[in-house]
Every structure is written in structure tokens, then in C-alpha cells.
Design a protein that fits this description.
Elements: H1 3-12, H2 14-43, H3 51-77, H4 85-117, H5 127-160, E1 162-165, E2 208-213, E3 216-221, E4 227-231, E5 234-239, E6 242-247, H6 250-254, E7 262-266, E8 269-272, E9 276-281, E10 287-291, E11 296-299, H7 301-311
Antiparallel strand pairs: 1-2, 2-3, 4-5, 4-8, 5-6, 7-8, 9-10, 10-11
Helix pairs in contact: 2-3, 3-4, 3-5, 4-5
Length: about 300
């Protein structure tokens, strides 16, 4: 099976693969920690039921599982790049502390339910001291999760290929024309100077984009782009079930596309007009767009009427 086919399968099931990977990581860690804690309790000759360490570890894992989507979104909203580190790092520290509090409240609630089901009572202990202890661990876990997300995104982008606009060659310099005196009309009166019409300014619209993918380079024709999605400081260029990230805002990239070919349908989406098959209105006043390949994209009410006018 070729690399592109594997990539296509992965992108088609990407959301479920990511969820399964996080679940496997957290559950595997909970199982290993449960075994380790049970061994430590036996060595210390402490009296605990065998199910209690499992409740402690799996309640923590389930709480993290509920919080990870928020952490992934935080990583996208406030990326920790070198130029943005000083601005975004304090925000992440505050969010890590808030995440720790949510994690503790969630796992304590699950433990109380599990203990109550066994006819027992769970005591978290001294709350200020325990919150401080959990915060020390959770901030490190938060940083580790962001590191995993960053490394994963980098790998996927290298696998998909990152797009960039080809550098245009410099325009040749026009030869200088020496100034000549105005020509004289037969009557001896100078002829009026010839005025060149002003050309309207047009944005630079590239026909092809350069894509770098795992050490290889190839050209992506703009006419093959099906839709464009905003993603933080990037836009994802979608073509044949593949997304190619390009560092740009959606509004800036929209200016480089042919307005007759693409239409804005959402604050986060542009779509090629000729690929829209049907418009499916919703009760909220928005709509879903079904493309010719079966893909569905959101269309907000702000752009819906303008889209209908373009399709007429």
C-alpha cells in the first residue's frame, strides 16, 4: 500500500484514531500504576482492598480523558512558539492550574461514587495540601500533553506536506527611454501627450503552490484546491482527502484566490463554488453544504444569502 493511501486512510479516520490513541495511553498508564501501587502497598504492609488503587488510578485517567480535548484546543489557540512564548506561557500556566482543579474535582467525584457503590466512604484528606500536591503533578502532566500534541502535529504536517507560495521571479526592468521633445503638429502646435490608461491593481494570485513533504517537493495547482479551513496561524488546503497546511490567515489567503472560483461560507471556511452540490438549511438559520464528493461543510447565516445569490 502506497504512502498516500495510508495517509488517506488515516485522515479519513483521524478523529477516532486520535481518541483511541489517547484512551490507550491513559488506560495503559492507569493499569501500570494500579499494579505498581498495589505492590507498594503490600511492601509497606498497609491495609487496602485490591480494588482501591484501581479506583484511584482509573478515576484520574477518566478525568484526564475528559479534559484532553480542551488542552488540545488550548495548544491550537495559544501556540508555544519561540516568538509567542513570552506572551502565551503565562496564559498556559493559569490554564494548567485551572485544569488541575478540574481534574481533582472530577476524579474525587468519581472516587466517591465508586466507594459508595462498595458501601465505603472516600476521604480526599486535607484539601489545601492535597490540591497543592496534585497541582505539582498536574502542571507537569499538562506540559507533557502539550509536548505530545506539538510533536504529533509536527509529524502529521510533515507527513501531509506543508504548502508555501512560490516566490515570483523579479520583473525585468524596463529600459529607460530618453526624453524627447514633444512632436509638433502640422500647424506648429505641440501635439497633446499620450496618456496611458491606469491599470487596476490586482492581487497576486498564484497558480501553483510548493508543497514540502518528508524531504520531497511537489507543486499543488490552486485549481485543484477544493476548500480551505482556518486553523490557528495556518490554513488547511483540502484536496482529494488531503490537507496541506499553509502559514497564513484565512482572510489574507482569500485575497490571493480567484473570487469567481471561491466563496466564503463561514468565518473559518472557503469553498470552491463549482463543487457545492446542495444546501441543507438548519433550524438555527445556518446551513450545511454537501459537496460533490460527499463532504459536508458548515455555512453560517452571515454568508448564506450571499452564497445563494452566487449560485443563481
Amino acid at each position: 500500500m502506497t504512502e498516500d493511501k495510508w495517509l488517506g486512510i488515516y485522515l479519513k479516520h483521524r478523529r477516532w484514531i486520535e481518541r483511541a490513541a489517547w484512551a490507550a495511553l491513559l488506560i495503559g498508564s492507569a493499569v501500570a500504576n494500579t499494579i505498581t501501587v498495589n505492590l507498594d502497598l503490600r511492601r509497606a504492609r498497609l491495609s487496602f482492598d485490591i480494588w482501591e488503587p484501581a479506583v484511584w488510578e482509573f478515576s484520574s485517567a477518566l478525568a484526564w480523558m475528559a479534559l484532553i480535548p480542551l488542552l488540545v484546543r488550548a495548544a491550537d489557540t495559544k501556540p508555544l512558539r519561540w516568538g509567542l512564548l513570552r506572551r502565551h506561557l503565562p496564559w498556559h500556566l493559569l490554564f494548567a492550574l485551572a485544569t488541575s482543579l478540574a481534574h481533582v474535582l472530577g476524579m474525587v467525584a468519581l472516587r466517591k461514587l465508586a466507594y459508595a457503590a462498595q458501601g465505603a466512604r472516600y476521604d480526599f484528606g486535607n484539601w489545601p495540601l492535597e490540591l497543592f500536591y496534585e497541582a505539582l503533578k498536574d502542571v507537569r502532566s499538562y506540559a507533557f500533553i502539550l509536548l505530545i500534541v506539538g510533536a504529533y502535529r509536527l509529524f502529521v504536517w510533515r507527513w501531509q506536506g506543508e504548502a508555501s507560495v512560490l516566490a515570483e521571479p523579479p520583473a525585468p526592468l524596463e529600459p529607460s527611454v530618453p526624453s524627447t521633445p514633444p512632436a509638433l503638429a502640422p500647424s506648429g502646435v505641440p501635439a497633446p501627450e499620450r496618456v496611458e490608461p491606469d491599470l487596476p491593481d490586482s492581487p497576486d494570485r498564484p497558480e501553483r503552490l510548493l508543497v514540502k513533504k518528508l524531504g520531497k517537493e511537489f507543486l499543488l495547482p490552486v485549481e485543484e484546491i477544493e476548500w480551505v479551513q482556518a486553523c490557528g496561524n495556518y490554513v488547511n488546503l483540502h484536496r482529494q482527502q488531503h490537507d496541506y497546511p499553509l502559514r497564513s490567515s484565512l482572510s489574507a489567503f482569500e485575497q490571493r484566490l480567484d473570487p469567481a472560483a471561491f466563496v466564503r461560507v463561514h468565518r473559518g471556511y472557503l469553498v470552491r463554488l463549482s463543487l457545492i452540490a446542495t444546501i441543507e438549511p438548519t433550524e438555527a438559520g445556518d446551513a450545511h453544504l454537501r459537496l460533490r464528493d460527499g463532504s459536508r461543510l458548515p455555512c453560517s447565516r452571515t454568508y448564506l444569502e450571499r452564497l445563494r445569490q452566487r449560485l443563481v
